[in-house]
Amino acid sequence: MKEKNIHLLLAVLATGIMSFAGVLIETAMNVTFPTLIEQFNISTGMVQWVTTIYLLVISIMVPFSNYLLKNYSIRKLFIIANLFFIAGLVTDLWSPSYAVLLAGRLLQGVSTGIALPLMFHIILNFTPMHKRGTMMGVGTLTTSIAPAIGPTYGGIMTANLSWHAIFLFLLPVLIISLAIGLYAIPEIPVQKSGSLDGISLIGVALLFSGLLMFLNQLGSWFCLISLAVGLVGLVIFYRQATRRDNPLVRITVLKNKVFVLFLCGFLVCQFLLLGISFVLPNFIQIVLGKDAFIAGLVMMPGAAVGAILAPISGRVLDTLGSKKPILFGLSLATIGWILLTVLLRMPVLLGFVAGHVIYMIGIGFSYSNLMTTGMSLLPEKDYGDGNTLFNTLQQFSGAVATAIVATIINLSQQSNADFIAGTVTGSQLSLLFLLALLVIVFIACIIHFKKEPTVN
């Protein structure tokens, strides 16, 4: 496979643009939620499904993509993913109802669920080891910076045009991605390996759907039914993964405890990225009474800083190893997050900007390097399964984070006679919950690096 002439940087760029657009649109819609609530007459709990259904579909598609990558050429998969995305954009550009809007998000989720693992597959299989940190930094730029840029982009479009414009202006971006990919990615024959484990895929769908419905239905006895569905899905997936010779995903990679540590650290960072992209724009609009443009603008400086740091942090990893950038990044992320949490009780827009910038500097140094370090611990034969776990759980954790913070805020709003006060309390409780996860991961990484100070 590697002897074929692939234009590596352009191939990563083409898949990266598509992945970037996919992740960007996750949070670009968050600033539109107050508008959508009013336009479609829906609740906070319902509106978050605009993001949740999208992330749910990605979570199901990514493990399916592990099978696709083993049986179909990267060129074919790239073209299919691109066309699905374009179809989803056109659907949502037109969408006259909430149901049609969700249908378009579903199509976009199918595309991003193929594009993300495809991008990392190209990086892991075609990049020399000594350049892998830098290229992984470029790749994870799409998943670390896009969530931060999304609210800014969505806010500008919504305030000046319409939320439909969010989809309109991404159409030429996808066409450019398609043109670059058609040039850079050759038709590379694939030696088909294994059949599709459809039962495992059903298990994944039940697991993720059930757990997300459980989180959205907290406070109602219906949540117990959803939890039961999720647990059934977990049992089905686990049985298949441990009994089949060619399972959908080999979970034996999870026996590597250090790999699991960096995977968890990466997922917590994703929790934070999606959590703050939901909480802060909505807080600024609902509590402070600002419009979507201002809400998005507050996120812009941090997004710009993160965009600059993503590839640089990968180069730092290649030069200095993983310990310094990861611990430095997690420490700054913690400081920034504490500042954001405190400011919810005494809100100052410039304070939110400063806290978000500090936090994004920390994310810039830690996020992609956690994934790179974790993947480097696996033998080459396990790259596909490790890549699938990172990307599947990344998207699912984003959906979970969005569902959790939306549920906390929604319950707080319903239990408080003052809607604004309930929003403030719910927002702060959401950030405190996520702060606890960040601190746990930070301490675990400190302990690990003290035991193994020479790990690269």
Automatic annotation (TrEMBL):
Entry's Gene Ontology cellular component terms: plasma membrane
Topological relation to the membrane, as annotated: Multi-pass membrane protein
Metal-binding found in the keyword field: no
GO molecular function, a single term: transmembrane transporter activity
Ranges of residues in domain Major facilitator superfamily (MFS) profile: 7-454
Compartment(s) of residence: Cell membrane
SUPFAM superfamilies assigned: MFS general substrate transporter
Transmembrane segment boundaries: 45-65, 77-94, 106-124, 136-156, 162-184, 196-213, 219-238, 258-280, 292-314, 326-343, 349-367, 388-409, 429-449
Pfam families documented for this protein: MFS_1 (PF07690)
Record's keyword terms, sorted: Membrane, Transmembrane, Transmembrane helix, Transport
Protein name: Drug:H+ antiporter-2 (14 Spanner) (DHA2) family drug resistance MFS transporter
Organism whose genome encodes this protein: Enterococcus hermanniensis
Lineage: Bacteria, Bacillati, Bacillota, Bacilli, Lactobacillales
